[in-house]
Each structure stands twice: as C-alpha cells, then as structure tokens.
C-alpha cells in the first residue's frame, strides 16, 4: 500500500480527474476527504468508496472562499486527526478570446484556480509543519506552461500555480514538505467536452502517443508524487501530456 495510513484531501474530487484520483488513492490505502462544490456527485463517490472498504468523507467547499476552505480543513482534521496530502485539483475554465474576455470571466477563473490553490495550501500547511511531513500537489496545465489561444485567464492561473509551487517547494522543504505540480495535456473529462470534436481530432494528431489523456493517466502521476517514492522530488512540474509539447 503506497499510501497506507495517509490522509489525503482531494479538491475537485467529485468528478473527472479528481474522482479517478480518489479511487486510485483508496486502492493504495489512503483515507480520503473529498472536497468539492458538487455535493450530489461528492456524496455519491464517497458512498462508492466506502462500499469498496475505503475510509472516505465528503465536505462541500468552495475553494475560492477562504472561510469555506478553512471550515473544510478543520472538518478534515476533526474527522481524520491529520492531513498528509493535499491535492489541489479543483479547477474551471471560462474561455474567451482576449479582446472579448469579460472581467467576470477573468475574475472567476482567478478566484477558483489561483486563489483556491493559495487558500487550500495556506490552510493545510500549519498542520503539515506540525507533523514534520506533507505532500502538496497542484494541477497546472500545458496551457500554463506554453499558453493557449482563448485561455488568457486559465493560462494565467496555471502559470501562477507553477510559480507558487516552486516558491513553496523552497520555503517548506526544511519542514519535511514536498511541493510539486502536474501539467496535464488534453484529458477526457467534461472540461474538454466544450472543445469541438474537429479541434480534438487535430490535437490528437499532434500527440506523439496518439491519444488524448485518460483521468487515470493523471491520477497515477498524482499517486507517484504523493508516495514515498517521490521523496527527493520537490518543486517540479510533471508533464503528463503524451509529449504534445516538448
Ligand atoms: P472537471 O470539471 O471534470 O472536475 C473539476 C472538479 O472541480 C468538479 O468536481 C467541480 O465541481 C470542482 N470544482 C470546480 N469549482 C470548484 C470550487 N470553486 N470549489 C470546489 N470545487 C470546485 O475537471 P477535470 O478535467 O477533472 O480537471 C481537474 C483539474 O485538472 C483542473 O484543475 C483542471 O484545470 C486541470 N486540467 C485538466 C485538463 C483536462 O484536459 N481535463 C488539462 C489540464 C489541466
């Protein structure tokens, strides 16, 4: 069991990549706090995890609200007594070309994808420092590293995740924490459902491994970085994109 006796918070754990990550972590012995805005899906996945013998709880959270995040972290500590792993996975898109992007589109994506990662990390870190150990892994994106048409807001947040990851990796390593990010390419979740099929076919042609990503591709990357095997990896951005951009 690579995560035996470890408590993991997975934000955005009710759907897509987060959901797959919850099942992957549970198979490796982790105790899970599914922290998501989507209560119906979150409670359903929790029930499924428990049916499989995993220890899992759900807490509704809006990661863009510091108060909501604080309550979620307190609930996690109350339920599991500790936090070993934070997966900053919740994220949204509100795409638009630069000249027509509204302030609301800009602000909402910043609030969830950037402020959310900051609020969650700031709230869990004192608990991790106290126990002298912790793992924080956040979702960046190929868009954040290379940019993408129509994704000014999203790319800004995902580049911001890289900057925060590297700063925290330097700041927190001395306390036994490891901080890393993953940069997925195009992964088949509802997030890419809005991308026209013709565009996805074009994208697929550019991916050396010849297919779009599956949620399990990303879940396994999260698992590796959360496991003891990655103890000497700190401040890295692991690209999980089939080699779409090198
Ligand atoms: P998804 O849309 O399937 O799942 C996102 C989850 O986040 C949902 O359960 C949603 O309820 C939750 N969420 C959204 N806003 C929230 C908030 N304010 N508070 C709490 N929970 C909230 O998305 P997917 O594809 O699973 O994405 C997961 C992460 O991976 C995101 O950060 C995304 O930006 C990143 N990513 C995804 C890629 C893809 O192609 N699917 C590519 C690169 C990065």
Topology:
Blueprint lengths: L6 E5 L4 H12 L3 E6 L2 H13 L4 E5 L5 H15 L4 E4 L14 H29 L2 E6 L2 H5 L5 H21 L4 E8 L12 H10 L8 H12 L10 E4 L6
Parallel strand pairs: 1-2, 1-4, 2-3, 4-5, 5-6, 6-7
Helix pairs in contact: 1-8, 3-4, 4-6
1,4-dihydronicotinamide adenine dinucleotide binds next to α1.
Describe the structure.
The protein is of the alpha/beta class. It is built from eight helices and seven strands. The chain has helices at residues 16-27, 39-51, 66-80, 103-131, 142-146, 152-172, 197-206, 215-226, and strands at residues 7-11, 31-36, 56-60, 85-88, 134-139, 177-184, 237-240. Strands 3-2-1-4-5-6-7 form a seven-stranded parallel sheet, sandwiched between helices. Strand 1 (7-11), helix 1 and strand 2 (31-36) form a beta-alpha-beta unit. The mean pLDDT is 97. Bound molecules: 1,4-dihydronicotinamide adenine dinucleotide. Residues 11-12, 14-18, 36-38, 61-64, 89-92, 112, 139, 141, 184, 186-187, 189-192 line the site of 1,4-dihydronicotinamide adenine dinucleotide.
